[in-house]
Amino acid sequence: MRNGVELVVKIFLQVPDTPLSSIHSTYLAPYYSLTRKETLGSWLTDLCNAVVAAEENDADAKAVVGNIADWAEELYRTEKTVLLLAIEKRSHFTFDVLHWITHVTKLLTAVAQAHVAEEYAQSEIEKHATWLISVLSWIPDDLESTAFVEGFSATQLMFEAAFDALHRSSEQVAECARRILIDWTFKAGRNTTGRRTLENGLQALVTLILSKDEPQLITWLKAEIAKRLAQENTLDVELLDRTARDLRQTAISFRRRELELNPINRVMGELEPDKLRVLLTAVADLLSPGTAAEPVEPNIF
Length: 301
Known about the structure:
Structural class: mainly alpha
Low-confidence stretches: none
Radius of gyration: 20 Å
Oligomer: single chain
Number of helices: 16
Number of strands: 0
Largest sheet: none
Distance between the termini: 50 Å
Order of helices and strands: HHHHHHHHHHHHHHHH
């Protein structure tokens, strides 16, 4: 079946896409759509929710967990091929694949942590979830590709996957998703496209780290940022200075909003303001120590 899906996707992606009403998304919706009923995404979500709700001794649910583990094995291979081809063709179907990968990663993580999942199945499913979310690390790093992918809220999707795994205490998936997010932040963020990916990615990382009371994660974040700043020779100084100034402004100005749609801002609004201010400022100082002494004007949101 998986080979058949891959073949069908390849065939459809050879047809020119339409930006307003994507032909690719429409015809591939039965497998990849997460917004329609009677699709694989809908059925899989219902099935995983039932498994998570099952009692620990439910034999049928245990069998389903095993079937899910079998189905997810090497799932990443197909999704990697499909995602890279969608990006290459600049197809709006990229939106569907990105959402599908992150959504299924969260489903697999939830099933692995279900009461009914036995130790071996949990290990296998978490491994499959880790490999699936790792597909996002293969996104090309050229300016056009990163700008195109970020246009589909890639940073927010990576944040959601990392946040979900962290708060389900799935260490393997959480660590992988966190590393993918910081890789993307600097890979896409170094390309000045007007999307403020560097700033948004760093805010996502700060929010992710502070959402869990684990001081070692703060140490990890600071060390990773310092390491990447030392390694990267393509980061524009003006970009770093501007991003640092914006982060410091956010640090003193951010206010929680009702009905916030951006998942990063929504979680950020639930953090302790003092902790948020301190870590955002520390990150800004790592990016641009030379601008640390500049006065910061609060922004009225």
